[in-house]
Design brief:
By secondary structure, this protein is α/β, with parallel strands linked by helices. The protein is built from twelve helices and twelve strands. Helix content is 32%, strand content 12%. The chain has a six-stranded parallel beta sheet with strand order 1-12-2-3-4-5. Strands 8-7-6-9-10-11 form a six-stranded parallel beta sheet, sandwiched between helices. Helix 6 packs across helix 10 and helix 8 crosses helix 11. The protein starts with a strand and ends in an 8-residue tail after the last strand.
């Protein structure tokens, strides 16, 4: 696994070794953002030009000489757009946002520019058609056509967006949901989890997990506030657990008890937090395939959110959680209240949520799907052919009573924090800016 920022002690994870190499990485991250200085009115959303040349990653890849390269999230100066043309062998690219087919922003700003040609970019606060986003789009158009790319998306929604895009719409695409360790993320007695966190056993606890939730408009902090206000006006026994951030309790109604768990760095702390909750909230406006959603479900905790992104891939209304029409906070609050008011139904849905997480996202499922994909690429590559197989199932409406749990023979996936590196036999390399490998 080859990464730009190594945080583990795993010897199979290859990252910068010396202080000098780490300094170069920090410099590349800084330089990558310099073109944005020309756009003082840009918003807070992440935008990645990916222009910094001479990536040290390329030299390490040549030494590894992989048969297949598996890319994940490779921003913050890790690779420039032109570097893709220099990568050896077939490339599998698991997309964790929309950057691969936009002009530099990681999520489309409702302009649908990715279906044609970017420009006049809202994320940049640009009023010019021939702006940085259009230049980046053209660079990608020239680079991508020279690269043997096979795409993977964790959610059907992101797959549909990629197929609609002008840059990658003609590429083979597979939908493989993110995978997690369902033996680690599992149910534990709720009373024990609450006792360890010193939480009242009498309250109904809702959990909100994630960083910068009150800074990124996509995360729906305003929708969360509206939903909680509606719930608090109807019930006096609610409590809110917040993991990953701290805000003033005054942002919510007085009387709603808030407990801030801080930034939880390890899996066991997250498992404890999930199991202490009755329900996990996911108020996002845009979401590819939430790790928090799958982790909570694996712990036997239902999730409540809107019918957006990858949510309907896992949340089946009335079976594994609460799924409301997009941004209808009244419907979301009503669904949550109804579920909390029926303890037996809540227990049954919690059990079904766990089953669905294991069935769709367990590591054996993930590994099998990726193994089959890599093997098919090797076979086609050896025979001089390009891969023609693609899979993109239809996403049902939130109103449908069920969701096909295994539209492919076996669903699997990779975490959005997935790293990159070398497999034990040295034949495949996964490449990512992060450092954690959950499945391969």
């Amino acid at each position: 696994m080859l990464v730009q920022d190594k945080k583990s002690d795993d010897p199979t994870v290859l990252g910068p070794r010396s202080a000098g190499e780490k300094a170069v990485i920090r410099l590349r991250t800084f330089l990558d953002q310099l073109p944005l200085a020309a756009y003082p009115h840009r918003g807070s959303a992440m935008f990645s030009p990916a222009w910094v040349p001479f990536s040290p990653v390329l030299g390490r890849l040549r030494k590894l000489a992989p048969d297949i390269i598996h890319l994940h999230w490779v921003q913050k100066g890790m690779l420039s757009i032109n570097d893709w043309k220099k990568l050896p062998g077939p490339i599998v690219w698991t997309l964790h946002d929309m950057w691969a087919f936009t002009g530099g922003d990681h999520y489309d700003c409702d302009q649908q520019c990715f279906t044609r040609q970017c420009g006049h970019c809202t994320a940049l606060g640009s009023k010019r058609n021939h702006d940085l986003s259009q230049r980046i789009w053209r660079q990608k158009q020239a680079a991508w056509r020279q690269v043997p790319l096979t795409l993977v998306t964790p959610s059907r929604w992101l797959g549909e967006q990629a197929k609609r895009s002008s840059l990658l719409g003609d590429r083979p695409l597979h939908v493989i949901p993110n995978g997690i360790d369902t033996e680690l993320y599992r149910p534990v007695p709720k009373d024990q989890a609450r006792s360890l966190l010193k939480l009242s056993a009498e309250r109904k606890w809702l959990l909100l997990s994630g960083l910068d939730l009150n800074e990124d408009p996509r995360k729906g902090f305003d929708l969360l506030t509206e939903t909680l206000n509606l719930l608090a006006s109807r019930r006096s026994d609610l409590g809110l657990l917040i993991a990953g951030a701290s805000w003033s309790p005054h942002q919510f109604l007085q009387g709603l008890e808030c407990r801030f768990l801080g930034k939880l760095e390890d899996d066991l702390s997250l498992v404890l937090a999930y199991n202490a909750a009755d329900l996990v909230l996911l108020p996002s406006r845009q979401e590819n395939f939430s790790n928090a959603m799958v982790e909570a479900m694996a712990c036997g905790v239902p999730v409540a959110g809107f019918h957006i992104g990858g949510n309907p891939d896992m949340i089946i209304p009335g079976e594994t959680g609460v799924l409301a029409p997009p941004f209808d906070t009244k419907a979301l609050a009503s669904g949550i209240e109804k579920l909390l008011s029926h303890p037996e139904a809540l227990r049954q849905i919690a059990h079904q949520a766990r089953n669905r997480a294991v069935e769709v996202c367990s590591l054996p499922q993930v590994a099998q799907r990726y193994y089959e994909l890599f093997a098919s690429l090797e076979d086609f590559h050896a025979s001089g052919h390009t891969q023609k197989v693609s899979y993109l199932p239809h996403a049902p409406s939130y109103a449908e009573p069920g969701l096909c749990a295994a539209a492919p023979p076996a669903c699997a996936g990779s975490s959005s924090t997935m790293g990159s590196g070398e497999s034990p036999n040295g034949s495949r390399v996964q490449l990512d800016q992060g450092s954690t490998l959950h499945a391969d």
